[in-house]
């Protein structure tokens, strides 16, 4: 995943959005612009990255619980640190 950070600071942009999108497309990976200040796409980026990691993680044979929806899970594997 390619993240363009601080998208709220358009006047200080170092890399044009279309170039980031082009690079991501060339490598067949997702692209998002984010801003922690305006909370734009921060949660979306986290969930997309976490889901991509889970998709790439081989299932353990002893774990027959199936896939976990990280957004709506009460699974014990989910972190308890944040609400």
TrEMBL record:
Segments for region (Disordered): 55-83
Protein family per UniProt: Belongs to the small GTPase superfamily. Rab family.
Organism, scientific name: Dimorphilus gyrociliatus
Coiled-coil annotated residue ranges, if any: none
Record keywords, A-Z: GTP-binding, Lipoprotein, Nucleotide-binding, Prenylation
Cited InterPro entries: P-loop_NTPase, Small_GTPase, Small_GTPase_Rab
Molecular function as annotated in GO: GTP binding; GTPase activity
Designated name of the protein: DgyrCDS1646
């Amino acid at each position: 995943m390619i993240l363009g950070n601080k998208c709220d600071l358009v006047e200080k942009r170092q890399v044009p959005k279309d170039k980031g999108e082009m690079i991501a497309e060339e490598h067949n990976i997702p692209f998002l612009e984010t801003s922690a200040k305006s909370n734009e796409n921060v949660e979306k980026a986290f969930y997309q990255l976490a889901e991509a990691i889970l998709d790439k993680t081989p299932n353990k044979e002893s774990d027959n619980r199936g896939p976990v929806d990280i957004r709506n899970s009460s699974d014990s594997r989910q972190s308890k640190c944040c609400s």
